[in-house]
Structures are given as structure tokens and as C-alpha cells.
Amino acid sequence: MKKGVRFKILVGIGVLLVILLIALLSIPKIILVDNDVTVNLEEDYIEPGYKAKVLWFDITNKVTVTNNIDTNVVGNYEVEYKIDLLFDIVKKRSVIVIETIPPEITLVGEESVYVCPQSIYEEEGYEAIDNYDGDVTDKVTLDVKDDMITYIVVDSSNNETSKTRTIIHEDNVAPNLELKGNESITLTLGSGYSDPGYTATDNCLGDITDKVVVEGSVNTNAVGTYTITHKVSDGVNETSKTRTIHVINGIATLGTENAPGVIYLTFDDGPSNSYTRIVLDTLKKYNVKATFFLVPKNASLYYLIKEEYDSGHSLGIHSMSHTYSVVYASDDNLYSDIKAVNEVIKNVTGSYTYLYRYPGGSSNTVSKNYSTGIMSRSASVIHEMGYHYFDWNISSGDADGRNHTSDEIANNVIRNLSKSRYNVVLMHDTHEFTAYAVEKIILYALENGYTFAPITMNTREVHHSIAN
Ligand SMILES: [Zn+2]
């Protein structure tokens, strides 16, 4: 080939390349700021920006932008940037709408569960809720190990959450021990005793009655209080219960008048609607005779006065109104109060009584407010009127206006009992705690060699010092 021809070809190629380069540079270009964009659910999509140019001319305003983004719906979207020419220039941006909040798992039952040894935990249930997917409970997977269950759930945006439940293979519930029959039993000397029995169950072991250990014994030939202890263990926890057996010297025999160790139980202010009944039944159970200093205000309870009398208890006069301002207003008021009560007693029982107890006791000072010297004057003539009056040397403390337990009332009496004198005990059959203290006092007394008697005209009077 000639030199001139080769040169022409090279020039031709060169010209073509220049034309091609110019053509390429003349194609409009769209330039995006950033490429793919991620948007959080329900947040606005913000356009990161774009430019368009051809050669050195800015033609950004020729670009039309369209998108189908819905930021309320998780997914992949596109933004399209287009310049409409003879042929379209198009550029696309990918936008991903995501949510990042993992589901929440809620366990039914405790996060730490006790299960009997050798037992398998029975799933109590769970629930998984996702802010976007809703209920995803059915997507929860369980990783079950011996002592731990892991609950895992992943939502549609790949957010994962997990929760664990710890399984403790241990019996943490004490056995249940039930004594059949009463927890307190009273026997008379020489009678036989057989334990009424018991049952024991355990949450893990079932019936464990045969594992109950019984400690203690009862000697029914010796008066006293016996304690039988029942214990049962499930290997970890122990339960125990006691039964108290009172062996008493038969029913009470009547105490010798004024003898050391005699107890005169006296009940003031009754009869009362509910509590006199309890007192009478308890006295009858142990054949104990007592004394009732009456406030017979309520005629519908006179049948109780009759029952007291018919049961061999002594009746005494206390007051018709028990209102100090009335009873102690004058000597006449005092004597007519005494007589009014005695008329009721006569009407109900057929006989008068000559046993008397001053409202507030003979040492009261409240009467000073109404009549100075009324206690001294009346006490000096009351014997001439035929009456014997009785204060007390043991107070049960049941009339201080406060609430008490029957144990307190019984203990107030018991700790003051003495075998070196006769004991006149002040109580009121107008309180529930007093009514239920009576049996405790009687049991203690019978186990400890005391006797009971009703006050009679032969009983030596117990007097406080007159203070008005
Ligand atoms: Zn009284």
C-alpha cells in the first residue's frame, strides 16, 4: 500500500473517533446523589438529589421524577428519573422501606418455673406480637433444653427476638397434712385413746400418708395435757401439725365451800343473746356450776335465766339498768334497783336471791359523781337487808372496752388462780372472747386439781375497800 493511502485511512479513522467522542459527550447524563436508599416504616422518603447535564449545560430541570413509594408498607420500591428526548434517558434508584422493631414475646406463667424432679415441664403457652406483622405466635420456635426453654421469633423484616423460661426441677411445695377429727381432744381419766388419724399428700409424690411420723403419746391414766406431733416430709419440705389431748379427772365435782383451790366463776351483765348460750353449754359439758350476776334488761332472754337456775347455777342481783347516774343517784334508787332485779328473778324462777354485786364493784368511785357516801351507807345496811355482796379477787380483764382473744382472757384468769385461797373470778357473759375462754379455764383447772362451786349464802364474801 502506498504511503498516501495509508495516511488517508488513518485520518479517516481519526475523524470517525472524534465524531464518536462528540456524539458520546452529547448524550445527556443523569447523576444521582447516593444510590440505594433505606427508609424506616412510616417515615417520609426524602429525595437525596440528582443532576442532569449535557456537555457543560445543566438540564436538571428537564428531569421528571416518579416513584411508587408507600412508606406504610415494607418493601422494595423504585424512583425513576427520566429525560424525554428522541430517545428516553432513564436512571433508577432503589428504595427499601424497612421496619426495625422486633416482635414481643409474652409468656403465660412464670419465667422461672418449679417442676417436680423427674417430671417434664408442660408448656403453659406464649404469645408473640409484632408491630408490623401482628400476631406471629405461630412463627415462634422453641429450643427446649433440660433446664431452659428459649422462645425465638423472627418478623417479616428479619428482626429477631427471644425470651427464655428457666425450669427448676425441684419440689418447692410442702406436703399437705390433714388431721382427722379435732385438733384438741378432751378425755376423762382412764378412758382409752385412739388417734383419729391423718392424711398427707404431696404435689410431687401424691399420697404420702405412710410417710407421716407420729411423735408423742397419751397416758390416759395421768391427768395432764399431751401433745402428739405429726410430721411428714417430701424430701425437701416438711410439714408438721400437733394435736393436743387433755386428760381430765372426769367431770368436775362440786368444790368444798370456801376451801383453798375452789374457783367461783362469776358472770356479770348477762344474759346476752349469743354468748350466754355458749357459756351455759360449756359449763354443762364439764358439770361446772357458776354464778350469774344479772342485768335482766331484755325479757326475751329470761328463758336463759330460767335455764341458769334450773342447771344448778347461782343467780345474783347486779342491776336493772347498769347506768351509774341512775343507780347511784340516791340510796332509794340503789335499793329499788336491787329490788327490781330480784322481782324479775322471783318471777322467772319462783325464788328470790340474796346474792348481790354492786355495779362497778363496791370500791367504785364513779358513784361519787352522783351521791357522796352512797357506797359506805349502803354497805353498812345491806346485810341487815338480808343481802351478801361479792366483789372478786381475780379479774379476767374482759370489760376494759377493748377487743381480746379468748386466750388472753383465759390466761388472765389462769395465771392468778391460787390453791391457797378460794378464787372468785370476774367475767362477763356479754363477750364472745369471754365465752370461748371458759373452756380453756375449766380444762386448765381440772388438769391442775382445782374444783368449782357456785356462790351461796354460805360463801365467804370477797370485799374490796369502799372508796366512796
Ligand atoms: Zn357490771
Brief characterization of the structure:
Helices cover 21% and strands 31% of the residues.
Give a written overview of the molecule.
With 468 residues, this protein is of the alpha/beta class. The protein folds into four domains: 25-98, Immunoglobulin-like; 104-169, Immunoglobulins (Immunoglobulin-like); 176-248, Immunoglobulins (Immunoglobulin-like, Sandwich), CATH 2.60.40; 262-452, Glycoside hydrolase/deacetylase (TIM Barrel, Alpha-Beta Barrel), CATH 3.20.20. Helices cover 21% and strands 31% of the residues. The chain has helices spanning 3-25, 275-285, 302-310, 324-327, 331-349, 374-381, 406-414, 432-447; strands at 29-32, 37-40, 50-54, 57-58, 63-67, 75-83, 89-98, 104-107, 112-115, 126-130, 134-135, 141-144, 148-154, 160-169, 176-179, 184-188, 198-202, 206-207, 213-215, 224-233, 238-248, 262-268, 291-294, 314-317, 355-356, 388-389, 394-395, 423-428, 451-452. The strands form eight sheets. Strands 22, 23, 24, 27, 28 and 29 form a six-stranded parallel beta sheet that branches. Strand 23 (291-294), helix 3 (302-310) and strand 24 (314-317) form a beta-alpha-beta unit. Helix 2 (275-285) runs parallel beside helix 8 (432-447) and helix 7 packs across helix 8. The longest helix is centred in the N-terminal third of the chain and has 23 residues, at 3-25. The model has no long low-confidence stretch (mean pLDDT 93). Bound molecules: zinc ion. Zinc ion binds next to loops.
